[in-house]
Sequence to fold (228 residues):
Amino acid sequence: MSLIEEYPSYVQTMKDALLNGDEAKTIEVTKELLSIGIDPVGLIQEVVVPSLTEVGRRFATMEIFLPELMESGAAGRAASELIETELAKTGTVVEPLGVVVLGTVKGDIHDIGKNITASLFKAHGFKVIDLGKDVSAASFLEAAEANRADIIGASALMSITRAGCRDVATLLEDSGVRNKYIYLVGGGSIDQYYADEIGADGFGDTAAEGVELAKKLIANRRELENVR
Ligand code: B12
Fold:
């Protein structure tokens, strides 16, 4: 049974709070939902993402303007932070599955989805080096080398910033280290077609998809290393 079927009125209140940019109400209802013990990942996928997608649609069609976008963004961020704290509690693995260097690309300050992706990787037992937002290709590479990363993950939300994902791929290639890393991309401006075009190893439409893909790719890589 989905969250919406189980708790229709709570879910509707949270969606309305996000759409109206009501941060206090968003925090209140998110806390209530989490205290009932609902699945935090479901809350992201079924409430936060669709609500913020609707906010984006309204912004694009000029039904709302920048102040409203910012208020909904702040409400979305507050909800995500509460959900991330809950997710962090479930990460119990001692030996990390792998090291992930994650960031939002240069020129892009959208970090709600990247933060959720970081939390989910952590909850699944990965060590995450979170570089934050507005991260240059050089910083991705530097952090990956310094932390002996297995995976580099780049997030981009705008059509003008998605080239930042290509910049990372190009720098890895030019530096002769492309095969050292599994390179994953995601965020609203990325699709499988673009990921293939820039030669990324994978694309995650959602954070959960990205984590599953990472697990598969890392297992394949370790299997190959054992055969050699
Ligand atoms: C919230 C928001 C903001 C907030 C950001 C707050 C923050 N701290 O992030 C604020 C108000 C600051 C903001 C600012 C701006 N925004 Co804005 N924003 C949004 C909005 C409404 C939601 C984005 C979001 O958080 N979604 C929810 C998260 C959970 O989803 P997500 O990021 O896609 O992440 C999920 C997956 O993609 C995946 N994922 C994400 N990253 C990664 C990485 C990897 C490796 C993997 C595997 C998976 C993965 O996991 C997540 C969970 O499943 C979008 C609308 C939209 N449809 O996206 C517009 C949107 C992205 N913004 C837009 C614009 C234009 C701007 C501004 C330029 C506005 C302005 N005129 O100033 C500025 C940008 C400034 C800058 N330099 O970056 C446009 C971009 C248009 C385009 N296509 O280029 C959008 C699409 C709105 C629109 N329809 O016009 N914004």
The chain has ten helices and five strands. The first helix runs from residue 3 to 6. The first strand starts at residue 99 and ends at 104. The chain has a mean pLDDT of 90.
